[in-house]
Amino acid sequence: MGIGWLSPMGPRLMSKEDTPAAEPVHPEVISWMASVAYLVGTPAVFLFGYIVDNYGRKKALMLTSLSMAACWGLKLYSTDTWALITARAIIGLGVSGSYVVTPLYIKEISEDCIRGTLGSLVVLSQNLGNLLVYILGEYLCYQATLWICLSVPLIHLLLFPTMPETPSYLLKSGKIEEARSALAWLRCRQPTDTVVDSELQTLLLELEQTSSSKFFTTLRTLVSDRSIFRAFRITLTITLARELCGCLTVLHFASSIFSAAGGSLLLTPNQQAAVLGIVQLVGSCTASSLVERTGRKPLLGTTCLVSGVAMAVLGAWFALSAGAHAWVPVLALCLCIYCDAAGLQPVPFVVMTEMFSFQYRGTVTSIVIAFACALVSVQLRVFQPLATQVGLYLVFWLFAGVCLISTAYIVFYVPETKRRSIEEIYAEFDGKKEKDPEADVTRL
């Protein structure tokens, strides 16, 4: 909910007539507001990795809500440039922490049979929050929108203390009886139940297997083992494709893009941006079924290709006929956002978890999220100045080029991981040891 706030509120802050600030906010400041959250989020990923291991998942999650509440409170306090940028930096802590801690908390409290469904709710909740902010930004004033945004983390801070710490962390801390009680509460059973005892023994065995794994030891193995390193390169490359496809930039600057497009549609730029939010929500709802029906590689390649074609069409529209056929940019952007939510966003995470064993997933996840935050921070910082200097059409063509090149990479080098063990995937890599052209591509 915090990240999507900038799209409807950015144009309002820059408006001469409707700005809540003392004077219209300069576009350069809006660019910094967009990028600074991810800039701060890059090192914050490792900070929260430390917090979650040493102070617990529950405290780490409450810290994310505290940072979000501080962000909205600061924006209510002041609309000066320093406050707007500082608030976005603070929410960068919360957002990066959420991406690190929330999946871990869900994994450790849920049963295997519902873990996938609960995990998909993370992206679904994020997209629902984006849509809510689009709607609030269109129909409510600046202050009312901020108060509603502030209420969400405050409610979480009030209610979440009643939730238990994860059994895995309690076992790691040596609190076996507390872990038993927490597990029994989560499973709606008595602490003496045999099901609880059996799961507790499984968690203890898993803890023994992973307790000796250290960050730098894991990192050294990632680089030295040929098959693991290749899986790591593939993960970073498809993350690069996901973040540089242009969809996140579109979501941040949707209202500004639609304002630049003009046209004769009855919808306002913010209402058109809300349509993107609805499409994104629909895409995230269909992602879980699509990824199981089509497989990881076909879905990732198809959505990347369609996004590239749509971005190319969008760039051509801005270059040749901006103002005419106003439905074209709306349709093209809706197609991009749907493909992003249905494939480009979720599939790389699925592929990543299926290419690494539990000893490496935590380290790889931290590195990948930090890498993604760094890419997005640079992208959002340069988008508006670059669009002003060279034109929106060229920027969209750059996004299209990334998508199309990434599609070729996916076709030739990304393995299908659906219903395949890690050993089977690595055996495929080992079969190409004599010649590894993928390494040359990823070094470019």
TrEMBL record:
Which parts of the sequence belong to the Major facilitator superfamily (MFS) profile domain? 1-418
Look up keyword ATP-binding and say if it applies: no
Q: Where are the transmembrane segments?
A: 29-48, 83-106, 142-160, 244-267, 273-291, 298-320, 326-351, 363-382, 394-414
GO MF annotation list: transmembrane transporter activity
Taken from the record, one Pfam family name reads Sugar_tr
**Is this entry keyworded Lipid metabolism?**
no
* Recorded superkingdom: Eukaryota
Q: Where in the cell is it found?
A: Cell membrane
Q: Which UniProt keywords apply?
A: Cell membrane, Membrane, Sugar transport, Transmembrane, Transmembrane helix, Transport
Q: Which InterPro entries match?
A: MFS_dom, MFS_sugar_transport-like, MFS_trans_sf, MFS_Trehalose_Transporter
- PANTHER family (alphabetical): AT22075P-RELATED, PTHR48021
Name-wise, this protein is Major facilitator superfamily (MFS) profile domain-containing protein
Organism this protein belongs to: Euphydryas editha
